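Support request, priority: normal
Reporter: lab tech (M.K.)
Component: structure prediction queue

Hi team, I submitted a job for S41 family peptidase from Ideonella lacteola yesterday, and the status page still shows it as pending. I've pasted the exact input below so you can check whether something in the sequence is tripping the parser. The sequence length should be 478 residues. Please let me know if I need to resubmit or if it's stuck on your end.
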Amino acid sequence: MGAKLKVAGLLTLGAVAGALTTMQLTAIARNNYAPIPLEEMQQLARAFDILKSDYVEPVDEKKLINDALAGMVSGLDPHSQYFDKKSFKEFRESTTGKFVGVGIEIGMEDGVVKVVSPIEGSPAFRAGIKSGDLITKIDDTPVKGLGMEQAVKRMRGDPNTKVVLTVFRKSENRSFPLTITREEIRVQSVRAKVVEPGYAWLRVTQFQERTIDDFSRKLEELYKQDPNLKGLVLDLRNDPGGLLEGAVALSAAFLPSDVVVVSTNGQIADSKYTYHASPDNYMRRGGVDPLKRLPAAVKTVPLVVLVNEGSASASEIVAGALQDHHRAVVMGAQTFGKGSVQTIRPLSADTALKITTARYYTPSGRSIQAKGIVPDVWLDETAEGNVFAALRMREADLEKHLQNGEEKNEAREKAREEARKKLEEQAEKIKDGSIKPLPEFGSAEDFQLAQALNRLKNRPVMVSKTMTERPLDTDTDH
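Reply from support: The job had stalled in the queue. We restarted it manually and it finished. Here are the results:
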């Protein structure tokens, strides 16, 4: 397992908040609770009493109850979760795109924190932290040995408090301390630029509360820079998902009014719904539709959607809707396959359940649970082929994932394990430079972006000769 995690760490470009989830933040009041199975509840109470009285040392009663709740929910599927006070606060931060910290996107390299990018305008940006800097100490604590989550927690804190980061800058071969004052950071989940005259690139990294506002503003800016865009690349690679309303709104920006974007179906009446490309389906009460300010050309501009194995949930909704309506050409690799919706059910002011309440379906009725969106055009990661793709986890690799209901494939995990072992053998080559890490998305070296632009220009595309559709695994042991 250690080797697997070591190699997988090389894929990490930043700390992504909120993992692989499409969420509805609506709370539904329910007074008709199901009958409680008395015998089983008595067993639970008896177990609680035994642990409290007979365990080797005193146990915290609240911790026992919290752990029981967490275990009850986590046994259902990989996306349902119990939020205690601390985790609920962190979850709400992840969906709003706001947190208190220094403002850097990070990864791990050789056991220390590597700065992927300072967030523009953040305290870290103003202090002069640069991409590629290594953070070796946080206050008096060496980073070596800390996990990414622990490092992130130490850099976050209360507003107006200070943290001292010890930075090693390779290009200058020196270490130096930086004292940074924490403040509220707003994460930009949308990036965009005109790549060349007539062609633009727009990347969505996650669907948060502010994503559609940011998306509309960035798209408006692109058209101000170049009013005669001939083509647009919508980049959803490694987008783990987020808010369902955001996926509906982004799809609606490109689709005709009122067409079906996605439908959901579950056990209760509230989970059975069809979402259309209409403000009523993605706007909250009292808000102003941010899509209104977009130019009419957005509805007809030639569009390519880039996806990969890390595109999940809300990003799959967008890719599936645009593909089914023949509004865009989907290029890249088969997506993650997370076709379920999670809903937040508050238990108190500070705690909640995030539970799977529905499966979602593309406009043509496809369930992509454990399968994903199959691209129209398959692309390797680089001109030399795929280096990292087989290492990325997918929905079908998660324990207790919901089944799709199609054919069984017992060879899938064996093939994936063989591919993983092969790539683990190459880990040292990646570190010593024999194998280069993937270039930054949107850069001049981005092979898949170059192929997407070729498609928009009706030029030859270097289609993958090895990638094929993944067969489904519906093993009932999951």
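Residues 117 and 292 are 32 Å apart (CA to CA). The chain has two domains: 98-186, 190-456. Let us know if anything else looks off. Ticket resolved.
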